[in-house]
Fold:
Amino acid sequence: MGDYHVHLHPHGTWRGTGPRPGEYPDGHVEAYVDAAIANGADEVGFTEHLYRCVEATPALGRFWEREPRRDLAGLTEEMVVEDLTLSLEGYVTAVVAAKDRGLPVLLGLEVDFFPETIDAVLDLLAPYPWDFLIGSVHWIGGWAVDHSPSAFEFARRGVARAYEEYFEIETLLAASGAVDVLAHVDVVKKHGHRLAAPPVDLYRKVVEAAAASGTAVELSSAGLHRVVGEMYPAPELLSMFADAEVPITLASDAHYPHEAGRDRATLIEAARTAGYTHRARFRQRARTLVPLEG
Ligand SMILES: [Zn+2]
Ligand SMILES: [Zn+2]
Structure:
């Protein structure tokens, strides 16, 4: 597999281990590559968070100020300010340098999707030599839907409405064609909030939008390590993507070196079960399909 969702720094303030946010000392990229290869991966696609990069602030704006619920806006502002410790320029330089050293790495980015600001974001990203972009819905308005301190909002809003609002934005992202891959496409379930039956009508819209725009979807094992205990996408949703011939990438969403390339066998088995025989590979935003290994 290639692991197509990997971060070079954990969230939050520096905890005294590993490099400080925004620093890429000798051997740091190599530690991820070594772990990924030991786990059976053949390449590592780095996908740092756009919202953590200081250069993104003018494009993304103070998006939480559009949120009418002041408690949700406050939690998001706190989180974004704490995480705003990286530089797009520094990140790109570190990955390109690793590529120049001959390491099997790709330059990607995890792009936060807001319908209001995606055009400004794409303008910001245009000058850089991306291999692929993944797109994420982390916020409904100013509500950080996958952030545990804000999870109380599910009780206030209702799980059904949260799912509807989440998938409405995810469908806009899929239809936009702005990114190459949809990241953790049903992350709204992360904290274990479930509907009585899979929301196939919501699923259908995002699958159709991805198929129409030519956007791939990642099969991510990150959910296995969360409360929900299930990959993104859910098995029913993954089968719908397979039936619509939407290509997949394989992904760990690693934030530490030892997580790179993990769960390879589980991911490949789930992909095969859904009907996939190939995975997508990217170079300079051009996609090819290669057989699933294993
Ligand atoms: Zn994410
Ligand atoms: Zn991520």
